[in-house]
Design a protein that fits this description.
- By secondary structure, this protein is α+β, with helices and mostly antiparallel strands.
- It contains 10 helices and 11 strands.
- Helix 1 runs parallel beside helix 2.
- The longest helix has 20 residues.
- The chain is globular.
- It starts with 7 loop residues before the first strand and ends with a strand.
Length: 314
């Protein structure tokens, strides 16, 4: 069993974009920012204690908190009954934003504890533990947010049973622009409106786009990435929940975006661009569209984080 190297740690856990248009529940990417900060400390009292949550109203009871249930799953497998951990969470990602708020809490918790345990568990095990937080948050233990948060960059979930997560290549010049309308779309509600069956022709088109996206990332082929950013299954249904969605997509492409779509279950919308200049031009376009709507919003322009959750120093 690994030795504990230290008694406390502070980590940064990034926001994430899940689905990435065509990759529903299987493709995700991590942002450089925004992100949550979490402090974890080994405790003499066994089990998990959530000491404080700042920035959001979330349960302190471990069994009702996504970070708490992820840590409980991890401690159960670590099989040291006397081990305890205390957690303080500083939320900078608004719950219901569509950029991986629950995933950031769950991922940051398990990576932080793993550091205190001397990196006892491999990354894929950490993804599995963090998925328990997603199960609590929305009823489905999906990994397309927690995997990039933990592993960094783009990730692909090849299989859930058994879990098989692949870290993909991230082109250095690929940037992300995200607009977060200040309305809440619960993941559970957004999943509830989805069709349970899809036409074979739509499935074939979607598979082709996922394959093309992966190829485009490895080849750093930006026109191919652009063509692959098409969702014919989920986006047509969920887009009705997001103000000015279709105008956003059209105008942002005209401003230089490669393409994009709904981030996770929404309401955030993401756009990928080649280079920071294009990404910031897309941000300006987003602002021009949303300013007259009377809906509060936040816009983020970010590189893709290749490190994922990482330790920070005070």
């Amino acid at each position: 069993m690994s030795k504990q190297n230290k008694s406390s740690v502070k980590v940064f856990s990034p926001a994430t974009v899940a689905n990435v248009a065509c990759g529903f529940d299987v493709v995700g990417l991590a942002l450089d920012g925004p992100g949550d900060e979490m402090e974890l400390q080994i405790s003499d009292a066994p089990g998990v204690r959530i000491i404080r949550v700042e920035g959001a109203t979330l349960p302190l009871e471990a069994a009702q908190n996504v970070a708490g249930v992820a840590l409980q799953a991890m401690l159960q497998e670590y099989a040291q009954p006397d081990l305890g951990v205390e957690v303080t969470i500083h939320k900078h990602i608004q719950p219901g934003s569509g950029i991986g708020s629950s995933a950031a809490s769950a991922a940051g918790a398990v990576v932080g504890l793993n550091k205190l345990l001397g990196d006892h568990f491999p990354a894929e095990s950490l993804v599995r533990f963090a998925m328990e937080g997603e199960r609590l948050a929305c009823g489905t233990p999906h990994a397309d947010n927690v995997a990039p948060a933990i592993m960094g960059g783009f990730t692909l979930v090849r299989s859930y049973q058994p879990l098989d997560v692949i870290r993909l290549h991230t082109p250095e010049d690929l940037w992300v622009t995200v607009i977060h309308p200040q309305i809440e779309v619960k993941t559970s509600d957004a999943r509830g409106i989805l069709k349970q069956q899809v036409l074979l022709r739509d499935a074939i088109r979607q598979w082709g786009n996922v394959g093309a996206l992966v190829a485009g990332l490895y080849q750093e082929n930006y026109p191919l990435i652009s063509r692959a950013l098409e969702d014919v299954i989920v986006e047509p249904i969920r887009s009705i929940l997001i103000p000015a969605f279709h105008e956003l997509k059209l105008k942002c492409r005209e401003a230089g975006a490669l393409g994009g779509g709904i981030s996770g279950s929404g309401p955030s919308v993401f756009m990928l661009s080649k280079g920071e200049t294009n990404a910031r031009a897309v941000a300006d376009t987003m602002q021009q569209i949303y300013a007259p709507l009377g809906v509060d919003y936040k816009i983020y322009v970010s590189r893709i984080s290749t490190s994922g959750v990482h330790e920070i120093q005070d």
